[in-house]
Amino acid sequence: MRSWLRFSGSVGPLGVATAVLWLSVIVLLPLAALTVSAFDTGWSGFWAAVTSPVALASLRVTIVVSMFVALLNVVMGTLVAWVLVRDEFPGKGIVNALIDLPFALPTIVASIVLLSLYGPNSPIDVHLNATRPGLVVALAFVTLPFVVRSVQPVLIEADREVEQAALSLGANNWITLRRIVLPTLAPAIISGGGLAFARAIGEFGSVVLIGGNIPRETQVASQYIQQQIEIDRPVAAAAVSVALLVIAFATLLVLRLFSEWTARKERAAR
After folding, report:
1. Residue 5: pLDDT above 80?
2. What angle do CA 95, 183, 170 make, to 5 degrees?
3. Cα(211)–Cα(203) distance, rounded to whole angstroms?
4. Which of 14, 95, 174, 236 sits at a 20 to 30 Å CA gap from 164?
5. What is the spatial distance between Cα 82 and Cα 129, in angstroms, rounded to a whole number?
6. Does residue 138 contact residue 111 with C-beta atoms inside 8 Å?
7. What secondary structure does DSSP assign to 154-186, as a single string?
8. What backbone phi and psi angles, to 5 degrees, belong to 123?
9. pLDDT value of residue 122
10. How far apart are CA 142 and CA 73, in angstroms?
11. How many of the other CB atoms lie within 10 Å of CB of 216?
């Protein structure tokens, strides 16, 4: 038993080296190769590729739509998490399982389904093909679980006696929600929204059909990258890929720092 406890407490230098090697092969080396490709023609070539009008337009569409989707998921994802935790209704277990479906479903399948439902031959006469609302719907589908699964555990662990005490002291539902519930959920909501944004900026499969890939209108950065590869401009594709990588990394870094700050604040409050 003692030997097992010693083993579980530390994997030793060999384990650390194995983990670093695996991380390098799977993550660091491909990213390094991508960065080298992006600067194959020097800084001026990289900057020209990233700041070309069509590239900037695709990045702008990607960021704006992703931010809107993240905000939408912050509201709707929190509401869904609240319903799943606080309410009882028939089929709750099925709904709870369906939340994780976008994680398992190939995103191109989502695009096919959305195109069938909202495309030119829409059975419900709602046409979102080749429109920004179509991009929003597609990205909202693949990013919904991030907010729901971030908020759900916090809601489950939340002390409901504090809410009941506030209500017994005369606070109405809105005041209780604003001063007690939302401050408790805020770190999880921000974390889920940030993850949804980081996921949305790199999405390709769910938007490839319903998005329409119209330059300056509905072409997202991932589609622009594919287009550059198809016309044999790998440097431009790599440059925009690095730009997306920087945005995603910055988002995740901010979330990490925010999480550490929140943890320190909670420890200080105790």
Report:
1. no
2. 95
3. 11
4. 95
5. 32
6. yes
7. HHHHS-HHHHHHHHHTT--HHHHIIIIIHHHHH
8. -70, -15
9. 86
10. 10
11. 12
Q: Which residue has the higher pLDDT, 18 or 65?
A: 65
Alpha-carbon span 145 to 77, nearest angstrom: 7
Cα dihedral 107, 110, 115, 118 in deg (nearest 10): -130
81 in Cβ contact with 100 (< 8 Å):
no
CA distance 230 to 219: 15
Mean of the per-residue pLDDT values of the chain: 86
Amino acid at 262: T
Determine the pLDDT at residue 1. 43
The sign one gets for the Cα dihedral 222, 244, 98, 130 is negative
In sign, the C-alpha dihedral spanning 104, 108, 114, 117 is negative
Query: What pTM did the predictor assign?
Result: 0.86
Which residues are within 8 A (CB) of 95 and not within 5 positions of it... i.e. 6 or more apart?
84
For the chain, how many residues are written?
270
| Two structure tokens written together for 137 | 């719907």
Chain centre to alpha carbon of residue 253: 14
Tell me which amino acid residue 179 is. R
Token pair 């005041």: residue: 175
37: nearest Cα among 200, 223, 241: 241
Asked if 111 and 206 count as a contact pair (C-beta separation under 8 A), the reply is yes
Contacts of 17 (CB under 8 A, 6+ apart): none
pLDDT digits (tens, 9 = 90+) for 151-170: 999 888 876 667 677 667 66
- The residue among 99, 98, 64 whose CA lies nearest residue 78 is 99
